Amino acid sequence: MAGGDDNLRSCALLLRAAPDRPSVNLVLSGLEKAFAGRAASSFPKELTAAVSHALADDTSGQHLALGVRVGHPGAVASALAVVSDEKANKGPSPRIHSNVRRGAAAERRARVAQGVA
Q: pLDDT by residue (tens digit) across 86-117?
């Protein structure tokens, strides 16, 4: 993905325009593939809000890594539970583990900036 805030805002518009859950999943999957292997970066609030809204209906956890990447609180909490689950049959995906660390760090920086931590 070329990146840039204008392109990322266009992704948010595309996601919001998706007419049904299968279409939403298709856009979310495309975003995951576009961001795969790239360092997490900051996202425009429009994309973060669109992904968060889309994840509100995602009961399967299919797009957990993307949710963590954009800092969706529910996704971060779910991913932390997955990462810390010692009873899991296999270790967490390195992609999710990497994003959880970044997401948790971003969450901590936000609390410090707000004077909460």
A: 555 455 455 554 555 455 555 555 555 555 54
Cα–Cα separations (whole angstroms), residue 114 to 17, 85, 107, 117: 33, 30, 11, 8
pTM recorded for the entire structure: 0.64
Q: Which residue has the higher pLDDT, 63 or 10?
A: 10
Q: Distances in Å between the alpha carbon of 74 and those of 2, 4, 38, 95?
A: 28, 26, 22, 17
Residue 115 in tokens: 């004077």
Q: Classify the C-alpha dihedral 79-83-86-88 as positive or negative.
A: positive
Q: What tokens appear for 102 in the block?
A: 């970044």
Long-range Cβ pairs for the range 21-30 (8 Å, 24+): 21/57, 24/54, 24/57, 25/62, 25/63, 27/54, 28/54, 28/58, 28/62, 28/63, 28/66, 29/63
Sequence spans of domains, the chain: 5-113
